[in-house]
């Protein structure tokens, strides 16, 4: 089953034409897909089109489910004055279109996710007091509260120590294998992406130059 289907997607910013050009792509349920490429290649732009944050594209994007999202660290307020529990619970807001209150099932879902990610016992700690790696773990939990199917992550290990980055990848791999969570992420860490991803997508100048298995990929494109 394809959770996301993209056909002939193109997008331009007012200051930059052809940011994305004729993108055709399918994201299968239960897959771990990494999008790689140099800065300015269109990786984050593609994610934002999928999420509906970029308007005015041409082509077609079909989504079969809600999507949980973890944006780039630079877009996150790291000193946000809220507890871990409050941050995680806020991920359920998109599911409560007609209510400003959290439902019992939302609180239970948040509890399950926090337990799964090993942060339940510290749920009353302030988000701002956490390390970078802990904050990313909390934000992954928040994304999981929005969906049980697919989470989209934009450079989730950027700025983290290599050992912490490895832990984040291992966590995502565990979610895929044990919970059948589909992972779609942009990564600058190509070496680690090749170790964990089922599928690698390379973007160069807004165009897909490679889609396939990690073992068939090399820097600069397919063999």
What does this structure look like?
There is one protein chain. The protein has 223 residues and is α/β, with parallel strands linked by helices. It has two domains: 106 residues, Rossmann fold (3-Layer(aba) Sandwich), CATH 3.40.50.300; 77 residues, no CATH class. 30% of the residues lie in helices and 30% in strands. β6, α5 and β7 form a beta-alpha-beta unit. The longest helix is centred in the C-terminal third of the chain and has 18 residues. The mean pLDDT is 90.
Keyword list:
223 residues, alpha/beta, Rossmann fold, three-stranded antiparallel beta sheet, globular
CATH class of the largest domain: Alpha Beta
CATH architecture of the largest domain: 3-Layer(aba) Sandwich
**Count of the domains:** 2
Structural class label: alpha/beta
Rg calc: 17 Å
N-to-C SSE string, H for helix and E for strand? EEEHEEHHHEHEHEEEE
Number of helical stretches of at least 4 residues: 6
Separation of termini? 28 Å
Largest sheet: number of strands, sense, barrel closure: 6 strands, mixed
The neighbouring-strand order within the major sheet is: 5-6-7-3-8-9
Fold-level CATH name of the largest domain: Rossmann fold
Residue share in β-strands: 25-35%
Report a brief summary of the structure.
This protein is of the alpha/beta class and 223 residues long. The protein contains six helices and eleven strands.
